[in-house]
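Form P-L/3: holo structure prediction, ligand magnesium ion.
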Amino acid sequence: MSRISRRADARRQPAEAGPGADAGPHPLDDDGLATPASDPTGAPAAGVPGAEGTARGDAREPHLVDPEAGPVTGNSPPPPDDIVVDLRDVYKGFGPKKILRGVDMTVERGTSAVVMGGSGTGKSVLTKHVVGLLRPDKGEVWVLGERLDLMDQEQLDQKRTRLGYLFQGGALFDSMTVYENMRFFLDRLTTLDRGEKDDLIMEGLEDVNLPSTRDQYPAELSGGQKKRVGLARTLIMQPDIILYDEPTTGLDPVSVRVVSDLIVKLRDTRGISSISITHDLLAAEIVADRVHFLLDGQIAAAGTLDEVRRSDIPELQEFFKGTDAYGHA
Ligand SMILES: Nc1ncnc2c1ncn2[C@@H]1O[C@H](COP(=O)(O)OP(=O)(O)OP(=O)(O)O)[C@@H](O)[C@H]1O
Ligand SMILES: [Mg+2]
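OUTPUT (holo model):
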C-alpha cells in the first residue's frame, strides 16, 4: 500500500462529517454527469465529494431513487472474497421505461471490467447502482462483500469512501487551479494538516505524470490532462474500486492510450478494481480483462473483448462494425 493510501486512510473523515451528503444540489445532472461549477461556493460542496473521488451523493434524491421500489430483501449468501462487485438479477426502471431487466455481472478483485453497449441502453444507470446512487427495483447489489441496496444513508456514505467515480469531462472547478481543486476535496474529506495535504496532492499528480500542472487552471489543460487530474483527485482517497464513465471519450488516440494505460497501471500497481464504460475499442483493448455487453436490459455477452466481438448476436455484430464501437468510421 502506498504512502498516500496509508495516510489518507488513517485520517479519513467519517462520511457524515463532510458537507457532501446533504448540502447543496445533487452532484449529478440528468445525464449522470458531474456538474462542473465555476463558483466554488455553489455546487462544489456537494459536487466535489459526491462527483469524483468518492461517490458520495444523496440517495434520497427523488429523481435518482424510485420511491416506490422500497428496500430489496433477501438472504442470499455473499459472493466469494475475490468478487468485489456482484450484481444479481438487477431490475431498474423509470416510470414506464424499463432500463435494466435482469442484469447479472461480477467483477473480480484487481481486474478491469469494461461495460459496452449502445447509447441509452443503461450503462450509466448500471454503474450508478455500484456506487449506490441508484437502488434497484429488484435484485441484489453486492459491493465489497456487502449488500449496497439494503444500506441506509449512513452505511452508504461509509461505503462510498471506498469507491471512486470518475465522471466524463473530469468535472474540475474552472475557477480553481489544479492544486486548489485537489485541496478543496481534501479539506472536506480529511483532517490532514496542510503539509500532508500538499504532499498528497503532489504525489497524486505524480501518479498521473502531471506534477507541472499544479498551478494551472483547467482551461489551460488538454482534455486528456483534465481527465488525469480528475483521476489524481480520485486517487488521493485510495478507493478500492473506481468507476470510469467514458474515461476516454473525446480524446485523441494518443491521449486515449495514456489514460487507458493509467487505468491498467493502477490495477497492476495498486490492485484497484475498476469498471469502465467505454465505446472506444482502443481503450477497451488496453483496459478490459473482461467486457460486459449490455443489450435490452441484460448482459447479453461477457468475456474477453475478442470473445464478445466474435459473438453471433446480430446487435453485437452491428455494434462492432467499423472503427469504433458505435460503428463510426
Ligand atoms: N434519473 C433518471 N430518470 C429517468 N430516466 C433516466 C434517469 N437516468 C437515466 N434515465 C434513462 O435511462 C436510459 C439509460 O440511460 P443511461 O444514461 O444509463 O444510458 P447510457 O447507456 O449510459 O447511454 P450513453 O452511452 O449515451 O451515455 C435513458 O433512456 C435515460 O433517459
Ligand atoms: Mg452513459
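COMMENT: The pocket of magnesium ion (ligand 2) is lined by residues 123-124, 245 (CB under 6 Å).
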